[in-house]
Amino acid sequence: MMPKSTFSRRTLLTALAGAGAAALAGCDPVRRPAAPTAAVPLPDPLLIEVDGALGVLRGTGRQTIRSAVATADGRLIHASEPAGADTALWRVEAVSGTATDRVRLPGRWVPQTVSADGTIVALTTEKVSVTKERPPGRESTPVLIVNGDGVGRRLALPGNVVPEAFTSDHNGLFVLEWLPPNAPDRYRVREVDLATGTAGPLGTRLKQPIPPGAEEEMRGDGRQAVLDQDRAVLYTLYTHQPDHRHTRDRISGRPGSDVHAFVHTLHLEQRWAYCVDLPHPFGEGPAEGHAMAITPDGSRLHVVDVTSGRVAEISTEELTVRRTASFVASTGPAYAVAGADRLFVAAGPAVWTADLEKLGSVAEWSVADPVCGLALSPAADRLYVGQRAAVSWHDPAATGGELGRVTVPGLVGLRGPARSL
């Protein structure tokens, strides 16, 4: 059993004041929201990445949080900031900006991941992206689990791990375990039992235990992750996997196939994982040229590689590639979002749209600057396009003509719409 310490809300240091929208302002507890970014109000609140922080655009205002993690559905944000030698932690409703009272956690922590329902958060001493970077070498990893009441439990996990997601029942934590711990060059997905702090392998898609030594290890790039509409399955796109062998190959003794990209499927309720291989040429070009989008009903995943000009459609029920088609070839970072009947893809200063039933039929729109993100409004009646220092919105059912624009200094990414509880 791993060392752990438990503390209740009463044993935390004195809670800090700070309810309401002003709590979203960032590191400075008295900082006010930034001045309006445009005369025309934004129709829908949006989550953005700005100046190395998480931001929220609402109406004509912008608020920024320097250390925060949002739920995948854009409803809740867990934020933290230093409080002397300790950490103040609070939760924000993304649309309204309403914040809980702050609780003070012993030591310095940053939010790393949050449960799909937003009620429990895992904090680490330094945040590491599960899809963009590898952690520094270390023999053990401190993790703090805090629930909505401010009750926390500290775990000292052996090895070099990065929390990725919680199980649906909150009893387990999926992590990336990096190997070897002091000089990491590959990783595997494991589940930590939060009651004991012990880590073990996931089950197979058939809900069978994985034999010792059969866990797959990955060396490539995690490009993007999306959660399904039921908040039960996490899909992560991986590219550049040299000599990779899936768990199913290790168990059967088959050699690994010549696959350079796949979608790692992680079931948060049933605790199994399965990889959907993508055909050639996916994964052979730059990782940033790939993007993934899920349909609103969760039935289909679409993976686009703009470098090769290909798109693949995955059935989430069968976990197989249903079909592939030619798309538009381009260069640079790719972004994608799917509606009920259309797929939108962007790279550089262009946006393409395709009918989901005719993936090869593509129409192109031009925008002012290189794109840094796409998002559909909750009603799917506006397509938001993040660009250099601005967010524009367009009619997705027409020619893509610009309907409005707000300036956003420092914008580096568009996450998606903020949604009401």
Instruction: Please bin the fraction of helical residues.
Output: under 10%
Q: Over all CA atoms, what is the radius of gyration?
A: 21 Å
Q: Helix/strand-derived class? A: mainly beta
Number of helices, counting only DSSP H or I runs of 4 residues or more = 1
Shape: globular
For the biggest β-sheet, the strand order reads 1-13-12-11-10
Biggest sheet character = 5 strands, antiparallel
Residue ranges: pLDDT <50 for 5 or more in a row?
1-38, 247-255
Strand content: over 45%
Tell me the number of strands: 34
Distance between the termini: 37 Å
Chain-averaged pLDDT: 86
Quick summary of this structure?
By secondary structure, the chain is mainly β.
Describe the protein's architecture and organization.
- The two termini are 37 Å apart.
- The chain is mainly β and 421 residues long.
- Helix content is 1%, strand content 49%.
